[in-house]
User: Fold these one by one.
Assistant:
Number 1:
Amino acid sequence: AQKVTQAQTEISVVEKEDVTLDCVYETRDTTYYLFWYKQPPSGELVFLIRRNSFDEQNEISGRYSWNFQKSTSSFNFTITASQVVDSAVYFCALSETSYDKVIFGPGTSLSVIP
Amino acid sequence: SAVISQKPSRDICQRGTSLTIQCQVDSQVTMMFWYRQQPGQSLTLIATANQGSEATYESGFVIDKFPISRPNLTFSTLTVSNMSPEDSSIYLCSVVHVFTDTQYFGPGTRLTVL
């Protein structure tokens, strides 16, 4: 069975600090996809990244970076120099294929304090 | 990315009534899904909306309670029937874009049942 664990329920950081959100997944599939979504207080779910299991290269997009380690089944997300607008709930998710249903983790609520 | 709209954006309903939520996409998509997010919780898949045929429901969800239609590639409806306060949630439509194979989410419908 597929499962996503986000051990950090809530995190608070002061603006400009770096913060890493942890994600650990379980799957028996050899091919799978991992995602991160952001849900700000408005409620809309914003797609951040999709990564397939064959691509273990780390990715950087502006202040965001992702560290995928297949050996530890982890897909961690780092925000550098956090800003108040980063305050949101962040979901890590997993699917068998890119067009299949997505299994969501419980989410991590990030608060960035000015 | 696909532009997804949902109607209504929010509603307050009385126990025992039904509400139909519409999801409209501005471009062709391969898959459409309906998710539920209960207060303070993560997202749970209700069903896959299949074009021209019955939806595929996840364990714990039944057609009598959550009838779904998808008459064409870009439109779907979810009905929450015989509502109770436990149905108070955000209901989100998601689509897999035909060109990017990435799953995007609509803005959600925030439902409160009194």
Number 2:
Amino acid sequence: KNEVEQSPQNLTAQEGEFITINCSYSVGISALHWLQQHPGGGIVSLFMLSSGKKKHGRLIATINIQEKHSSLHITASHPRDSAVYICAVSGNTDKLIFGTGTRLQVFP
Amino acid sequence: DAGVTQSPTHLIKTRGQQVTLRCSPKSGHDTVSWYQQALGQGPQFIFQYYEEEERQRGNFPDRFSGHQFPNYSSELNVNALLLGDSALYLCASSNTRVVSPQHFGDGTRLSIL
């Protein structure tokens, strides 16, 4: 079993829909990360959180430490949100343990 | 302010050859981590360099080695290339004194024929 599990693996949505991507982890962590990867390969950090909830524009990330679960929400989705969204966790060092990613496609 | 830069962007090698990939960290960053991402998978941690030394290592064979230079830039070397080494190699940098997300380069796509 992977240390970081994401669901769903693939997700399609119509523009404007509310989207949720889930992440569960089985190891002790100091922080959980949500990242975005576009087809070219580059990865951009969206959120780094260790408790509660963070919001940036139309993106919201939540974490429940007791349940070892996090969610990434996208409100009013747009075709430009199409990308792979990856959950990762880190411990006492910078080393990241990644999930396999969720491929999101938003259609107009 | 340049972010993390990697070179080359693409590389084609044959089995048994050796390859060197390069990474320049974001300005102000002193720690470099390398990851391997196979097609359709999440990145896997290879190793991390800080103060010119390997600080941590993932589950990769000794064919994978690295180096960090005094200017914090880093190289990843892979010897005796195998078909399974075909992947996107990502470099990420951070500042060890600041709790913040790592910054990633665009990666080097390595294809082994």
